[in-house]
Automatic annotation (TrEMBL):
Ranges for domain PAC: 248-300
Protein name (database record): EAL domain-containing protein
Positions in coiled-coil regions: 288-322
Matching SMART domains: EAL, GGDEF
Organism of origin: Deinococcus cavernae
Domain GGDEF residues, every copy: 358-491
Pfam families noted in UniProt: EAL, GGDEF, PAS_4
EAL domain mapped to chain residues: 500-756
Keyword Coiled coil: yes
PANTHER family: BIOFILM ARCHITECTURE MAINTENANCE PROTEIN MBAA, DIGUANYLATE CYCLASE DGCP
Amino acid sequence: MTDPLTVSPAAFERFVHTHGLDPQSPPSPEKWQALMQVLRTQLGTAGLQDWRRHLMELQWPTFITSLEGTLQSWNDGCVALLGHGPQVVGQALDSLLSSPLEGLRLEGLMRRAGQGERLTGVELRFPQADGSVRLTVCSVALLPAMNGSAPGLVFTCAPLGAEQGTVRDTRQSFYETLLRAIPAPLTVLNPQGQYVFCNAGAIRDPEIRAWIIGKTDEEYMNYRQYAPSLLERRQAHYQQAIRERRSVTFEETFENTPRGRVVQSRTLTPVFDEQGELAMTLGYGLEITELRAAQEALQALNEELEARVLARTAQLEAANRQIQHDAFHDALTGLPNRALFTDRLEQAVMRSGPLGQPAYAVLLLDTDRFKGINDTLGHPAGDALLQQLAGRLRATVRTSDTVARQGGDEFTILVGSMTSPQEVLELAQRLQRAVREPMTVGGEEVVVSVSVGIVLGDAGYTSADEVLRDADIAMYRAKAAGRGGSQVFRPEMREQTIREGRLEQELRAALLRDELRLVYQPIIELSSHEVAGFEALVRWQHPRRGLLGPAEFLPVAAESGLAQDIDRWVLRRACLDMSGWQRQHPQARVLSLSVNFSAEHFNAPDTVAFLREVLSQTGFDPQHLNIEITEGVLLGQPQAIGQTLRDVQALGVKLHLDDFGTGYSSLSYLHNYPLNTLKIDRSFVASMLESRSSSELVRTIVSMTKNMNLSAVAEGVENQEQMAALEALGCEFAQGYYFSRPLPLLEAGQVVHDLNGRRQG
């Protein structure tokens, strides 16, 4: 065997020729592999190193690199072919190539050769001093390790012809030009994460674009002084793409650039070679600044629209809740209204216990004389009163009970559960006490009361309407009993109400069939004991029940709105009767006629016109007509009532205040209205001989009429002692059974003849 330490060039030449290698032409990869095999079997380590030295002395352009691409040997053939001298030894081969992309391609080829693959036709581009690029084709083979020596790669090169080299160079330049021309951002990273390509779409500044080649993303981000969070997100996406071996797309926002805010959609795509090793990573993207701005503007509009929709929806929901609330609550007091109360009452009716065992109770409260408050203080004061009433009722009942406003001045209370009827009666008393406490409305202190109808509900009721019907009946019975009290419904009350309803219908028919009759009670002048006039009183000639007194039908007339029609009928008939009688008895022309007028007349706009019409049609002298009104009339609106009374008096008609002392009149009322006469109520006359207070009251009234230039008429005189006492007090007129009962006109005329004739005789 040849001594490896003394291998001479001549011996190496013989060895080359012996193995069929041409020193003038580079061997193929197969021959290189064969040569390497011979060297491994015939030479030792020192010999191998010596043979490496001899290889570099061959005329073939040959160079040897480490597996990582660092140049270890570079012969003279390479100097002539590639334009570089031995000074490049120790440099990385890819640093001598024409572009970083060449280095990236070479890196993959070297990795394959290092794994034992035989490569031919490997094109390499070396830039020349004149700016041109020299192309060469190489064979690459593995130079194996032996006895501790490091393995390497041996490149044997051959130059291409000028025409072929130009074509190939043009093709490569075309690809790189094409990549640079793409307007979208495009970068290429080698497996170590270093930039090997970057187009103008990715980085506009050419200096930075040149600087970035060979730099990592971290170096670039630090150089540009981007936020650390941007680098962290980018590195996380890079690792995700390699780990999951797929493209990863994400967005990046760059603030404070020369163009302001810039938004890019970036995609990182890892590329793997045939062995599954990472070859490169492509970074490409699209600037979406305007798109994102448009999307954000659209999003803002959508959010604004959504906010408006939500706000509008909230408004509609609130409005719907308010509508639902308003549908079941009273606008003035805030209490449940009739509809809601009825619904809750229906539920209570459905849950009611056995017959005779009340499970719930309903109280119907009506405000006594509420109309008078509205008329005197005005409707705003009336509304304020109702609001205060609602508050007091709510504060008196339990939270489980329902207080509702039925309408007008009526309230209802549903006691959902009770232990005994006595509990409900006690509640009614507490309610009445709470209501009677003085209230201030319209700057005035007002005291009111309520009349309460009570129904104790059991299985006998099948609907809320039935319960409310009977509560209404009981409430009206409470009013009829004197107001301010309470009544528990009893079945006989319903029967009475039915009778009264039937009576109302019959009374309406009586007006049409002329079934009403008049009787006249004489009014006596006490100084002469002569008849001074008559009060016309109405009776009803019922077809089945006979002659009915006013107490049997006038309350029904007042409740049903027939009182005004009856009053007008009485006035017209009485004026006709008296006019006819006076024509037959001329001496009776001086007699007066008193007719009662209810409060409804003074709310009617045609009252004065009606009086004028009746007087004209009947020919009755208005100087002898007295219209009697109750004190309740004076509780209406003072100005309107006062003007109506003055208009009546302007016709020549006189005004009498009936039942004085029983109502709510005061001296201020008497001074405000054009009255002619006060009629002393029969209750004071009846007790004046037994009661000092009644006697003093009658004396005061008579004295007051004299001081105010009014007349006084005492009602209900039953005996001579009462008459004598009235005469002693100076009362001018009286009427009562002591003088005569109310009589038909002809019989009343006879009383005039007897009394006046006896006096004259």
